Amino acid sequence: MDSSLGYDFVVIGGGSAGYAAARTAVAQGLKTAVVEGGGEVGGLCILRGCMPSKTLIESANRTLAAREAREFGVNLPTPTVDISAVIARKRSLIRDFADYRRGQLEEGSFDFFRGRAEFEDARRVGVILRDGGKVALESSYFLVATGSRSWHPEVPGLDEVRVLTSDDILDAESLPHSVVVLGAGPVALEMAHYLQAMGTRVTIIQRGRQFLRGVDSDVAAVVEQSFRDRGMEVFTGTQLRRIERGGEGILVHFQTDAGPLTLGAEAVFNGLGRRPNLEGLGLERAGISVTEGHLAVSGTQQTAQPGIFAAGDCCGPFEIVHIAIQQGELAARNAARLHEGDARLESMDYRLKLFVVFTEPQVATVGLSEAEAHQKNIPYLTATYAFDDHGKSLVMGARCGFVKLLAAPDSGEILGGSVVGPHAGDLIHEIVVAMHFRATAAQLAAVPHYHPTLSEIWLYPAEELAEKTSHT
User: Fold this and answer.
1) Which DSSP string do the residues of 327-378 spell out, in sequence order?
2) pLDDT grade for 238, boundaries at 50, 70 and 90
3) Domain check: are 263 and 303 in the same one?
4) Residue 361 near residue 226 (C-beta atoms within 8 A)
5) Entry pTM
């Protein structure tokens, strides 16, 4: 190594979790360094995740709105899509976002190294710098926040054909005329929504019986039906057999309850998820264990080595950026406490776990679902209200979906909420705030809501639950 430097806290990965952790560690008085080994600076959310996908989805939403304008008395010519212009707008926005994050990293109150980090032991990493130099960083505390990468399942023939990933779609200036989407998780469905709105013929093949594993089936069913109504072909409860060249370009063979089927399409999109990006980190030399591909961590975000923490996609349990940020900040605070000899560490609390899918209609959930409540034997009461019976959503022409609340039978405390419908990702935050303060359904029902707004739809299930719990 050309040199060796000492720190109190070293972060491996300069994405959302890593930057949040570094900023927090500096505020706690720790001498901190960040190592970023990617070809670009910015992290998954900015470069290939949240921001570029939502930029493209906004173009998709505008396209669908233009097609539906006649319902509102607005006569427009049939909209045409300029994919090159869509991608140019995305690139411009992402360049600005990434430049801002790069500035935060390069000008932060911590040292920033561009290079690939590898553990030599539990208190030392070697960094091969992008300029060819080498440096060793020694520290009592580390945070691994290296994110995730696209995952390819073991399907016969999959490696012999070109399969699109979200990275490909997010920067594609031309789109296939037809595509088979593998999977029905958030990434798969968001990209299916985008592709179909842009004019691609979309078929979805899902192994499970419903869309969005982990979301209540009644919520998922609304999205599935909406996709079918838009002309997408959907197969659930399937098993992939093999993929090969042929027909329109690629043939996908799979098994259904009704028997074997084969579909042809110009392209296949792999929406089956991502896996932690852990290769080349030298984890075994640091004594860190990996469980089912993820770094195993405790509630304090510590790995098997108490001085080595992890945050974000590399450890889970949820691949959601705001949770990754919370994990990174908590890890930094815990490292600072240990540095001061204080063993009273914080633990992550996922009571308010928040989940949003930017399809059309959108899906958003917080707290307990009915399925989780059943699984954990947690008693609850529930109430729903449909958007097709709500004034503002009818005015908007947004008749699809509903809201749902769960409350404790004894106290009436709100335990969870779900929305599938217009602006679900925004509407859910009213329930997040209510749950943060452990509000009851009666307290939520007593809050004034302006009329007519989408937000007031929460009053109906809240009032129903308030009446139910007042009699228990």
Assistant:
1) HHHHHHHHHHHHHTT---------TT-EEEE-SSSEEEEEE--HHHHHHTT-
2) very high
3) no
4) yes
5) 0.94
The answer to whether 276 and 313 are in contact (CB under 8 A) is: yes
Q: What is the pLDDT of residues 407-425, one digit of tens each?
A: 999 999 999 999 999 999 9
Average pLDDT over residues 4-15: 96
| Domain-located, residue 241 | yes
Query: Band of the pLDDT at 471, cuts 50, 70, 90?
Result: low
Residues 404 and 461 in one domain: yes
What residue spans of 39-111 are helical by DSSP H? 44-48, 50-67, 83-106
Question: Which residues span the domain enclosing 461?
Answer: 361-469
How many domains is the chain partitioned into structurally?
3
CA 464 to each of CA 140, 332, 381, 445, 460: distance values in angstroms, whole numbers, following the listed order? 54, 43, 10, 9, 6
Instruction: With cut-offs at 50, 70 and 90, classify the pLDDT of residue 1.
Output: very low
Q: What is the residue type of 168?
A: D
Let me know whether 172 and 76 are in one domain.
Answer: no
59 assigned to some structural domain: yes
37 shares its domain with 119: yes
- Whose tokens are 């669908």? That residue is 64
**Which of these three, 245, 272, 299, is where a domain ends?**
272
- What is the secondary structure of 160-171 as a DSSP string? GS-EE-HHHHTT
- The rounded distance, in Å, linking the Cα atoms of 242 and 251 is 8
How does strand 124-129 pair with strand 111-121? antiparallel
* pLDDT tens track for 129-164: 988 899 999 999 999 999 998 888 888 998 888 899
Write down which residue in 222, 239, 272 finishes a domain.
Answer: 272
pLDDT over 90 percentage in the chain: 88
> Does the bond joining 361 to the residue before it have cis omega, within 30 degrees of 0?
yes
The verdict on residue 390 lying in a domain is: yes
Dist. CA 412–CA 349, nearest whole Å: 21
> Kind of pairing, strands 4-12 and 134-144?
parallel
